[in-house]
Amino acid sequence: MQKTEQFTLRTILILHLAPGLVILLTVLLFASPLIGLPMLTSVLLAIPVALLPTQWGIMAAYAKCRKLTIREAIPFLHEDTSKGFNKKALVWCFLAFCFLGATTALQGAEAAFWQPMFRWLPGWFSFDRIGDQALSGRVAAATVALNFVFNVFLAPITEEVYFRGFLLPRMERFGAFAPVVGVALFSVYHFFNPFQLLWRLCFIPAVYVTWKYRDIRYSAIPHVLGNMIGAIGLAALYWPG
Question: What is the mean pLDDT of the chain?
Answer without folding.
Answer: 84
